[in-house]
């Protein structure tokens, strides 16, 4: 947590200060939401989207180390922080002239391959054009090398949110010392449990058949210390995140998810977002309004707006726009206004603002279940896949349990689902009420919304996948060319292949393909979930490889 002491660092050569404990992004946001990267293909300025280490909107180079997420790196005195390839700055990138010469973007995915003897030259050019930073300096690469961390635990819990912490407390009460792994920068301890903070679990293979330490969970502790944990049981409580939304200019600096708005606003009304349009009409919108408070200028929702949101907005005198399409944002370099339209064909109108906060849809992080081979089911109420569970929270994989949002539980039952999963792991009965699940049936609210939105005029480039600059039009073109299903369209267009691992584009792609193919989302399928769940430093994996060599079976 930030304190009063100052740290001095440099940002793009200029002396800058941060309060002790602040991340680079928090420090740069003192003067408003910064634009720190440009997009890889179209040279569009980009800003932070998620604020919690999931997107590619805040990648910087720190002390020679490339692609560091500014929202996850706490400032140290003397840090030298630079942007990636944009020159002279991400907001005014002169390489943007290429946009004029190549209006469809330079196809670095399929081009630049022949003749083969020019491969080295091509790679240098592509790297320069790609918008990501160059390789690490030799000093930075050396500094990353560290011995791996290999541990054992009877039960490992992935995620220290309300559900994960409740599970840990229940196991401690039963006399266990569970190991809790969490990505958070500021995670409070659970008394009696072991905590591995700033640690990202990236790979959970199916359990081995020989019992004992059935699971091997692999990941890294920031910046790059690999870990491998042998465990008898795993409780996954990885929670959820706020989804992106497709509209014109959705990749502009100033468009943030509710996760990002909350992370950047430490106290009500105190943050870089001064005139925010909140998109969403449910619980998450209510939470966002409470935090942004008088910085909210309008609430827009794809459907109806719930009474608690109406009440909060009315208390602040904020106008409400239920059943409204968010067509686009204006502003070349950052958001200046939103263009809205009532659903069913209303006249377009504008609301002036400096930011759009996406608080309409919360999705789970289910990747570890896919990797472990758990049976998954589509829950139309959320428009996402969740593990198939017993009421107790057990998956189809023996020894693997789910708790909280990622299990498909809603409301106050998130915390009790942690206790329930812990009891299931212990084989003990739990006599609380059955949890409330996200409805399994029914179309997600956005299916009809996108049908209406994408059927209308769409001037300019609509970016579907900000990491790789894949356009909505390219996904539609893939469909016209005969490609079917998410996995195939992903391979053809590159959608979902960027550093966010598809979190911010594949859910929308799935809904769009379902509409185009005239099938339900589960019929359209999903991508094969391959490790890592999060981008993992090669230094961490390389060290683990040696550690595993010759490891005796438990
Ligand atoms: S804003 Fe830092 S990763 Fe998304």
List the helices and strands and how they pair.
Blueprint: E1 6-11, E2 14-19, H1 24-28, E3 37-38, E4 45-46, E5 59-62, E6 65-69, E7 80-82, H2 97-101, H3 119-130, H4 138-144, E8 149-158, H5 162-173, E9 179-181, E10 194-196, E11 199-203, E12 215-221, E13 225-236, E14 240-242, E15 255-257, H6 258-264, E16 276-279, H7 283-292, E17 296-300, H8 307-316, E18 320-321, E19 324-330, E20 337-342, E21 349-352, E22 355-358, E23 362-364, H9 367-372, E24 376-379, E25 384-387, E26 400-402, H10 413-426, H11 445-454, E27 463-465, E28 470-471, H12 472-480, H13 486-493, H14 506-517, H15 521-524, H16 538-548
Parallel strand pairs: 1-7, 8-9, 8-13, 9-10, 13-26, 15-22, 16-17, 16-22, 17-18
Antiparallel strand pairs: 1-2, 3-4, 5-6, 5-7, 11-12, 12-13, 14-23, 19-20, 20-21, 24-25, 27-28
Helix pairs in contact: 5-10, 7-8, 12-14
FE2/S2 (inorganic) cluster (FES) binds at residues 48-51, 53-55, 57-58, 69, 71, 260.
């Amino acid at each position: 947590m930030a304190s009063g002491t100052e740290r001095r660092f440099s940002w793009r050569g200029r002396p800058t200060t941060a309060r002790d404990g602040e991340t680079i992004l928090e420090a740069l946001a003192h003067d408003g939401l910064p634009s720190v990267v440009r997009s890889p293909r179209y040279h569009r300025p980009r800003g932070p989207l998620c604020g919690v280490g999931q997107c590619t909107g805040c990648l910087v180079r720190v002390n020679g180390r490339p692609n560091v997420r500014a929202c996850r790196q706490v400032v140290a005195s003397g840090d030298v922080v630079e942007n990636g390839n944009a020159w002279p700055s991400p907001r005014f990138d002169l390489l943007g002239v290429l946009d004029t010469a190549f209006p469809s973007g330079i196809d670095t995915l399929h081009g630049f391959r022949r003749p083969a003897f020019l491969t080295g030259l091509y790679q240098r050019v592509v790297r320069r054009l790609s918008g990501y930073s160059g390789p690490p300096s030799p000093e930075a690469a050396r500094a990353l090398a560290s011995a791996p961390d290999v541990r054992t635990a009877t039960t490992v819990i992935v995620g220290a949110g309300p559900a994960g912490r409740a599970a840990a407390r229940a196991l401690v009460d039963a006399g266990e010392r569970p190991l809790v792994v969490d990505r958070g920068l500021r995670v409070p301890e659970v008394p009696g449990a072991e905590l591995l903070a700033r640690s990202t679990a990236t790979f959970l293979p199916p359990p081995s058949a020989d019992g004992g330490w059935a699971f091997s969970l692999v990941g890294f502790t920031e910046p790059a210390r690999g870990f491998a944990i042998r465990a008898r049981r795993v409780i996954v409580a990885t929670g959820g995140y706020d989804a992106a939304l497709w509209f014109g200019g959705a990749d502009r600096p100033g468009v943030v998810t509710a996760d990002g708005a909350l992370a950047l606003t430490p106290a009500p009304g105190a943050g870089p977002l001064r005139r925010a349009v909140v998109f969403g009409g449910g619980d998450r919108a209510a939470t966002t309004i409470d935090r942004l408070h008088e910085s909210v200028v309008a609430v827009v929702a794809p459907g109806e707006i719930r009474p608690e949101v109406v009440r909060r907005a009315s208390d602040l005198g904020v106008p409400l726009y239920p059943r409204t399409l968010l067509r686009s944002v204006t502003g070349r370099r950052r958001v200046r206004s939103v263009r809205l339209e009532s659903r069913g064909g209303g006249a377009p109108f504008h609301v002036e603002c400096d930011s759009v906060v996406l608080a309409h849809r919360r999705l789970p992080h289910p990747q570890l279940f896919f990797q472990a081979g758990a049976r998954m089911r589509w829950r139309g109420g959320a428009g996402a896949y969740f593990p198939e569970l017993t009421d107790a929270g057990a998956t189809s994989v023996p020894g693997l349990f789910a708790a909280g949002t990622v299990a498909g539980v809603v409301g106050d039952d998130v915390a009790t689902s942690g206790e329930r999963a812990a009891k299931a792991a212990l084989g003990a009965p739990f006599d609380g009420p059955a949890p409330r699940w996200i409805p399994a049936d029914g179309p997600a609210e956005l299916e009809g919304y996108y049908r209406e939105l994408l059927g209308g005029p769409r001037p300019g480039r609509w970016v579907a996948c900000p990491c790789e600059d894949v356009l909505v039009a390219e996904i539609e073109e893939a469909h016209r060319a005969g490609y079917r299903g998410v996995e195939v369209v992903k391979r053809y267009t590159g959608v979902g292949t960027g550093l966010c691992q598809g979190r911010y584009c594949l859910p929308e792609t799935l809904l769009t393909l379902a509409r185009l193919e005239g099938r339900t989302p589960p019929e359209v399928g999903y991508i094969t979930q391959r490790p890592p769940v999060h981008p993992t430093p090669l230094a961490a994996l390389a060290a683990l490889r040696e550690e595993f060599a010759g490891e005796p079976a438990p």
